[in-house]
Amino acid sequence: MGDRMKAGKNFNIKDLPNSINIFSVIYDVSYHLITTEVDSGKKKSLFGQVDYWDRTIRIYYKDRTIEDVFMTLLHEILHVVDDDLEIGLFEGEYREKKINILTTALFDTLKRNNWLKFP
């Protein structure tokens, strides 16, 4: 994926969105230095989580590349799309594995076609 930028060196959190509009619903995006801060219950270590109640997406970013953080954001967006449209693509035991595969495929396609540009 080219040069990988580490948080704290060439990576500025301001380069990523602080809100995102999904189906006319605005989700605030917050970035956290501690994985347990991502979990709304502050108990699990997570890279990303959607809170449908307060319309937030929380992302862990410390010691990760900007590409990794973006992929986590894309992963959470796909959760919202799947849940809101009741598609059911990511149901069952392998829910996270399926969504990770689709996230990787979409990210790779967008990146290879220069539709994504990172600072």
Specify the number of helices.
3
Number of strands: 4
- The CATH topology annotation reads as Arc Repressor Mutant, subunit A
Overall pLDDT level: 88
Rg value: 14 Å
Q: At CATH's second level, what is the architecture?
A: Orthogonal Bundle
Work out the strand percent.
Answer: 15-25%
Describe this structure in words.
By secondary structure, this protein is an alpha+beta fold. The protein has a single domain, classed as Orthogonal Bundle (Arc Repressor Mutant, subunit A). 34% of the residues lie in helices and 18% in strands. The protein has helices at 35-38, 66-84, 95-112, and strands at residues 19-22, 25-32, 48-51, 56-60. A four-stranded mixed sheet has the order 1-2-4-3. Helix 2 (66-84) crosses helix 3 (95-112). The two termini are 14 Å apart. Mean pLDDT is 88; it is low at 1-9.
Entry summary:
The chain is an alpha+beta fold. It has helices spanning about 35-40, 65-85, 95-110; strands at about 20, 25-30, 50, 55-60.
